[in-house]
């Protein structure tokens, strides 16, 4: 049909004339003139036809009300038409639906446009087909020209597809568009496509098609676009879920949520890695953890407390697992007899998180594993309980594997990972506890072992060979506390309000602190902690 | 009885001799010698008697195993004997119970000691009665000498009382102590007694008995002891509850919890009130709110997000309602048609919080009202919905009441409170919304009204005449945003990552931010926001 032919294509029915005999000059002149005239006439006719056609087309754009940009939403009106969620489409076959969606990609084909529409972790195919009185070619063209990532309001019918649509997460439904309007368009070029950003690195490396690999640095510089991938939508749903599961477990075990101040009067715990803040005419420091406050909450009789909040570390560590600001999941509790009461509470809580993620977030985990393929996280759920080793036993495992004993006064990151591999091979678990760390490796507030003063009542928890939690029984006796502070070079006077809390009687207690992003990264094997933080902060990054 | 007589009291049977006739010198000498001898003999006899008595007593302290200090708990053993909660005692009459408790007060009386034992918001009376073979007088003495606030492990039987015990919150049970051991004692004098700290100010002022009034400053300087009052135990239980109710409502309405960074690369929103942080070789700034991050989360397709986290304000405001660090309950959501969708979500959420507190925390509210008497917080629950006024309507109410119109370009704290009283009188509600604030009063990111550009799509929520929430539809169009930034003196280049988020298409959206401590303070009428913060921070306070 005429309207499918590109307008700039040269006419095909005009061919140069060929003749064996040379024509006369006047004949040539005449012919030239005639040709000129004919050309002019043809041009004129073409122009007239074009104009007529344009006019006709303008007249017949019967779709003007069905597409185009909406005015800027300033809450001009409120017709109260409910919008639909992509996840409900499969149950609404044959019905009219109204969707606010992103255009992930669009593809024009003859008198049709195929759109891949996205909401969070879901995509659906939509199609707009030219149709007399309903969908004009102007509407087709406008829709085909929509920039990727435009936000549109689409009205259409949900239709069952004859065969599964592989490109979309909702494969059994297609939306047949009757109206499409632009809610918010693009004002700049995309730094990368969301489709490219959602691909596994392995696919960019190995596929026959040349895909654009989006580097982590590029992603983080353009985090708002990067976060739109189905993978990231799922990752941060799981981040929220970890917080929910943490709270749910602790609430049901008698814990109270507290909020402790991040601004502190003194640089505490370990002076070196604290950020300094200008505070009116003086200075303050950002809390490295809620350690002091949560212990004071125990001295204040709250019995069992937890906190979810930012912790700040002024460490110039540029590794895959360090951030300068991260979310601490902290708890502290009074104990009746033994610090293993705390260790077991922490263990029960973490297992509840693991099981909760696995059981309630199957879909999200599948979405993430498409981009970050990984073996499912393994932990012991049976009656034998979580694997617990003492620090000494862990040292023996590494020594047996050939690590020189003199390298094992503390565990390097490398040896931690090696231990993780050895434990996985021997015990088939990605999750375990190491108990009874040497006192020399722990902070001043750690309770020494009752029999061997070189050991302490402290533990670390590990996932896939990386530490995610550190905790201990704390010293609740002010005199022993002061003694230990001095032996670690801390002046008790510099932390007077903290020490005083124990002078007015405090129950025996213990606790632990978890890095939220580490749990998320290691459960999903995201390989870099920045992927587990919404807007990560490291020594070199303060934006976006 | 002899053993009740204080040991240092002088003997009462020795009286000076009186005689009318003077005795001879030798007789005097003789008498003096005899007296001396007698005195020595008496002294000797007394000493012998004391020694015999002490020996006898030492021999008969049949209670040595039933009282005394425990060794420092370093997790030496784990007999796994469960401890009991005071709240369960009423259902355990006649049974043996094991309690870890604070000694709030003790009172010795003849051969008995009465203790007031405390756990969080509960107290119970316990009594130790001398009894042959069971409770020695040494045990009585040791127990009577226990310092207030000592932490003890008590074993005894729960006995029904013949009449209600007024001094204890659990009035129908008394614990008859058989064993009492000290878990953690005091190493210093208490700054004030927890009983004094738990009294209403009115009682200290009006009671016939001279009570010690504990000033707020003294409380805050010794916050760990102050927090132990039944009132504060209840206040912070409610603080936790507000967070729970906030999350519960929002989770069930499709919101995701996010965590945004508090360290920011640029001083944003309003440069004046931002804390500066030394960040390695450069500088960072503490976020005044998660405003920018939560809007970017909307541009990143998270649709509906909330955050509970610290916000920092470098304002030198020393008032009853300002803190330099407080907990923000923030949310942001995409809207389909109108910003009232957000306003109604915020309203529904707050009403769910109010109802949740009232219905689930009756006991805690009663405990608090004993110290802070207040009318119950009132809000409209019926179908008529929450009272909504426009800014203009609110101005009219104040003008009618005699406030000069020219004072009402903005509301002073005083006029806000006056408005609250007028509204309470007229509409019988402590809770209402003021909508349609003048654009001039709102930040650059506020969406202007579609018809009157001097107005904006923004609202504040009030409790008892004080603002607790501020929110608005935001500008999602990058060009309008830049224009408004410039008109408010903000350079769009200084906030490039934020502005860029809108260049890649962002849905229309709005949100709001709530001060957790303000909601808590105003619901309970605590009169000072510091009482609603665990360890409050203001321009003059960074400790404890």
TrEMBL record, chains A, B:
Transmembrane segments: none annotated. Its EC number is 6.1.1.12. It is an enzyme of class 6 (ligase). Pfam families: tRNA-synt_2, tRNA_anti-codon. GO terms for molecular function: aspartate-tRNA ligase activity; ATP binding; RNA binding. It catalyses: tRNA(Asp) + L-aspartate + ATP = L-aspartyl-tRNA(Asp) + AMP + diphosphate. CDD domains: AspRS_cyto_N, AsxRS_core. Residues 33-47 have a biased composition (Basic and acidic residues). It is found in: Cytoplasm. The keyword Ligase applies. One of its GO terms (biological process) is aspartyl-tRNA aminoacylation. PANTHER family: ASPARTATE--TRNA LIGASE, CYTOPLASMIC (PTHR43450:SF1), ASPARTYL-TRNA SYNTHETASE (PTHR43450). Belongs to the class-II aminoacyl-tRNA synthetase family. Type 2 subfamily. This is aspartate--tRNA ligase. It comes from Agrocybe chaxingu.
């Amino acid at each position: 049909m005429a309207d499918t032919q590109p307008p700039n294509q040269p006419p095909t029915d005009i061919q140069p004339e060929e003749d064996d005999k040379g024509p006369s000059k006047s004949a040539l002149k005449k012919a030239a003139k005639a040709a000129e005239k004919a050309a002019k006439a043809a041009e004129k006719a073409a122009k007239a036809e074009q104009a007529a056609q344009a006019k006709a087309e303008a007249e017949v754009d019967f779709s003007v009300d069905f597409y185009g940009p909406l005015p800027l939403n300033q809450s001009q009106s409120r017709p109260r038409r409910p919008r639909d969620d992509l996840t409900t489409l499969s149950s609404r076959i044959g019905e009219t639906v109204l969707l606010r969606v992103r255009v992930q990609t669009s593809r024009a084909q003859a008198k049709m446009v195929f759109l891949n529409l996205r909401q969070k972790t879901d995509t659906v195919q939509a199609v707009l087909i030219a149709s007399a009185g309903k969908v004009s070619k102007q509407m087709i063209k406008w829709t085909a020209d929509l920039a990727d990532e435009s936000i549109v309001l689409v009205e259409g019918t949900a239709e069952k597809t004859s065969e599964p649509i592989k490109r979309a997460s909702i494969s059994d439904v297609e939306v047949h568009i009757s109206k499409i309007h632009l809610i918010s368009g693009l004002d700049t070029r995309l730094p990368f496509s969301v489709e490219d950003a959602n691909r596994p690195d392995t696919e960019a490396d190995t596929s026959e098609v040349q895909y654009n690999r989006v580097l982590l640095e590029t992603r983080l510089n353009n985090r708002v676009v990067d976060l739109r991938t189905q993978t990231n939508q799922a990752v941060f749903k799981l981040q929220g879920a970890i917080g929910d599961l943490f709270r749910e477990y602790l609430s049901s075990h008698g814990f109270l949520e507290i909020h402790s101040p991040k601004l502190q009067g003194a640089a505490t715990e370990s002076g070196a890695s604290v950020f300094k803040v200008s505070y009116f005419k003086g200075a303050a420091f950002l809390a490295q953890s809620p350690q002091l406050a949560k212990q004071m909450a125990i001295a204040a009789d709250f019995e069992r407390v937890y906190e979810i909040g930012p912790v700040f570390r002024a460490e110039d560590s540029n590794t895959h697992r360090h951030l300068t600001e991260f979310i601490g999941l902290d708890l502290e509790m009074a104990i009746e007899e033994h610090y293993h009461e705390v260790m077991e509470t922490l263990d029960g809580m973490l297992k509840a998180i693991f099981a909760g993620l696995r059981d309630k977030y199957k879909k999200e985990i599948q979405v993430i594993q498409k981009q970050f393929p990984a073996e499912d996280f393994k932990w012991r759920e049976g009656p034998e309980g979580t694997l617990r080793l003492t620090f000494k036993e862990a040292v023996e495992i590494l020594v047996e594997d050939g690590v020189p004993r003199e390298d094992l006064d503390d565990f390097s990151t490398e040896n931690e990972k090696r231990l993780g591999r050895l434990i996985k091979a021997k015990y088939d678990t990605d999750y375990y506890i190491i108990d009874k760390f040497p006192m020399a490796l722990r902070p001043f507030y750690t309770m020494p072992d009752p029999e061997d003063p070189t050991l302490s009542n402290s533990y670390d928890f590990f996932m896939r060979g990386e530490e995610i939690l550190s905790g201990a029984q704390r010293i609740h006796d002010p005199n022993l506390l002061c003694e230990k502070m001095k032996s670690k070079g801390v002046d008790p006077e510099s932390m007077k309000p903290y020490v005083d809390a124990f002078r007015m009687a405090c129950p025996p207690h213990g606790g632990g602190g978890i890095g939220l992003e580490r749990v998320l990264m290691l459960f999903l094997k995201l390989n870099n902690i920045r992927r587990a933080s919404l807007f990560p902060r490291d020594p070199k990054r303060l934006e976006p």
